[in-house]
Design a protein that fits this description.
The protein is mainly beta. It contains two helices and 26 strands.
Length: 289
Amino acid sequence: MKNVRQVSAILNPPAPHMVGDGFRVHNFFPSGYKLNMSPFYMLDYNAKIEFSARNEPRGVGVHPHRGFETVTIAYHGAVAHHDSAGNSGIIYPGDLQWMTAASGILHKEYHEKKFSKEGGLFQMVQLWVNLPAKDKMSKPKYQGVAQGDIQKFVLPENGGAVEVIAGNYHSTKGSVSTFTPIEMYNARLNKGSKADFNFPANFNTGFVIIEGNVKINGAETAKTDQFIHFKNEGENIELEALENSVILILSGEPIDEPITAYGPFLMNKPEEIQQALADYNEGKFGYLE
């Protein structure tokens, strides 16, 4: 294979912390590791954990966002969402929700009622995807996508499938619209199968091993819960599944703009953070119980 993109690092999950009482996450970036992953600003990974049954659903209460998008992908368990734009939904294993906070929104996320009452295995990923300055104050929107509606590229010889959430994989186009060029897939590979990926060298690229054990470019290996960060050199990556594996593929064109982050706000300038706080305190993000 020519023009191979080499691995920069294979990273173990940082120590976990709780978000609310419903999400036990490992923050791979920006807190856990300092990585070039723009337009992806944050990656919280809720590795597999067993939640006990409870009548009152665990989760995160009402909170604001402005200036970016949140992407939540379910692998085990179920999460319900409500926001101040009137959107609501439940995601089950294989589903995802892509919420564009943009000019400002309130939302809450919590374990779906039936899952909460029964308890069980829980595994999720949440990403914060930055927006370019010209789109930060656009209208909020919500894209909920069930696994059955995600376009899939079926690999030959019973090798599995690549679910194309966003972008384009071998002419299979993603189900989600994005503001900047983003490639996001769930690669579900059967043992012994291989899949190739090609991204422009300037795209920041990283893979999360959700399940399994893989060999990268015929050399290094990575296992469940690890994050593979790639160099910005070369374009071609080959994965080989050493056992049945699920890999979250992330690659995107960096947004070359300054970032000022404060709590749930991701803007370009400090004065925009001050305006976000003022607008939130004045009730301009809407209302949500």
